[in-house]
Amino acid sequence: MDPLATGVSRAAVWTGTGVEVRDVALPQEADVTLVRVRLATVCGSDLHTVAGRRGGPCPSVLGHEAVGEVVVAGAQRDIRVGDRVVWSVTSTCGACARCRSGRTAKCHAVRKVGHEPFDGDWPLSGGYAEHIALPAGVAVQRIPDTLDDKVAAPAACATATVMATLEAAGALPGQRVLIVGAGMLGVTAAAACTESGAKVAITDIDRARVLLAERFGAVPDSGGPVDVAIDFSGSAPATAAALNRLEVGGILVLAGAVLPGPPLSVDPEAVVRGWWTITGVHNYERHHLELAVDFLQRTRDAYPWASLVSDPVGLDAADSALTAAPLGALRASIAP
What we know:
By secondary structure, this protein is an alpha/beta fold. The protein folds into two domains: 3-156 and 304-334, Medium-chain alcohol dehydrogenases, catalytic domain (Quinone Oxidoreductase, Chain A, domain 1), CATH 3.90.180; 162-280, 3-Layer(aba) Sandwich (Rossmann fold). The protein is built from eleven helices and 15 strands. The strands form three sheets. Strands 3, 4, 5, 6, 7, 8 and 15 form a seven-stranded antiparallel sheet that branches. Strands 11-10-9-12-13-14 form a six-stranded parallel sheet, sandwiched between helices. It has a two-stranded antiparallel ribbon with strand order 1-2.
């Protein structure tokens, strides 16, 4: 039966001890954009939540990397019913001092897709559901018909975050770039930095992931000075090692440290004498999502993007995608 006719959708709800598929009332607010989820990929942060390494509201509908089809356009401009879209991780107010300054990713009233309590006023906030409800503060981006769902879904987190890290890294043509961590973000960054004209090396404790990254423009790290280091590992020792390899004027971009961990020891004298820049990236801005979609469209034939995502399981098997590593891929996926 048509969920719109019944007013009810189904969602995989993380309870803290497992996943329960529950019926959820569809929202009726006029400004909410309702999207039927076609495919949701499983980000590492959701795996950390389920494993107990990362805190968050519970119960909740997880999932913040997804692609879907608009069934109610709500308040979104330039979006129509039937459009295939991706959407931002954040819902922002657009009015606070941070939003007005261009830092909407750190809005004072920020709410996050896939991170809200199920028993609150935004139960359908995550992608592991038949439908997701997107408030007016969420950026919604139409995607080309030529992008496969497996390629498009990671744009909403992994690819857009990579676009933000490249912006923080500055001009890249001819630069020696070290990427620390060869997960989904690291492999995506390898391709993006290579396309930008950089010479890209990558390191990871998992040799198989390094080999995979070679298909996306990187070479295995062999040591030596670098102009830019981008960390997606979140490992303090690995980050410290990268920092100490920076050339004069080098830039270190931190994007992987999103879990509690040991502090990073930094020698202020080395920073001063080296003219180093250390910066962080968390969430991303609306234009980074636009850049992500453009990048994936531009490189869709250059790199085997779809191979990074496993074939999807159904909503009733969502718990398996959240607890077991996908075979031969970097992302598990769910097709509600």
